[in-house]
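I am still learning, so would you mind making up any protein sequence you like and the tokens describing how it folds?
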Amino acid sequence: MDAYDEGSNARHGPDAPRRPAPPAQRGAAPADSAESDVPPGPEPEPIASLAQPEPYPPGEPRTGIAALSPRYQVGVALALAVVAIGVCVHIGMTFLHVAPANTVTREHGTAVDDWIYPEFEQNWKLFAPNPLQQNISIQVRAGVRGPDGMTLTTGWYDLSAEDGRAIDGNLLPSHTQQNELRRAWDFFVATHDSENRPVGLRGALSESYLRRITVLRLDRDDAVRAATGSSGVIERVQVRSRTSNVPPPEWSREKVSTTPSYRELPWWRVPQDEARGGMR
């Protein structure tokens, strides 16, 4: 038997010519079956493979961590885990430092302080029962020796007001401009008594720190340069604080004195290497 004996139901390839039906079958067909000579439609598409596609096509390069070898991927994962643990520990220590006294801080207060001080020191407390209600400004004046050898005493310069003007309207103010002078004054007050005498080993350090800041500020101040003709040398400085209570709101019945009070420190001699900002 040959391929023609398979009958009219035999399938032909897509390029094979269609074979006409035998005469007997043509006679048995209905009269209105002329459409049977119309070429058949296209063969159905073969069913796609059910195999899972590769995660990355051969032609698409891998990026990010996926491009690393398995050994380096493990290393990156371990590094990220260490960083995450460090961040969590730091946040926990900072919270314990600023939180009110509790069982954990009483038991492990030394460990918390060792973690925080001095790099991460916080000067605020959660749920502060008595927030600061005073305005404190630091002022300084200087004794400047001119070219003729005469010493001129300048007026008082409000350094805190200058810091306020520098950050007013600034969306990204400098952390140094906000806190350097204030923290230096807090450091001095914490290490001296009401008579401005040091009460600990850090007393002399706080005096030197505050003096250097004021000398640097005066050395850069245009008003001081104008008063001394830009040729004077700072020989000594004197610092004082001006403290005034924050006035209560209009609707409050509280009565508070707004008269400022001053705390003047003694004159400090400026070493020669600091006279023109030599500490820089």
In short: The radius of gyration is 44 Å. Strands lie at 134-145, 151-153, 157-158, 233-245, 261-264, 268-269. Helices lie at 23-28, 70-98, 103-116, 159-167, 175-190, 203-220, 222-228. Residues 28 and 95 are 96 Å apart (CA to CA).
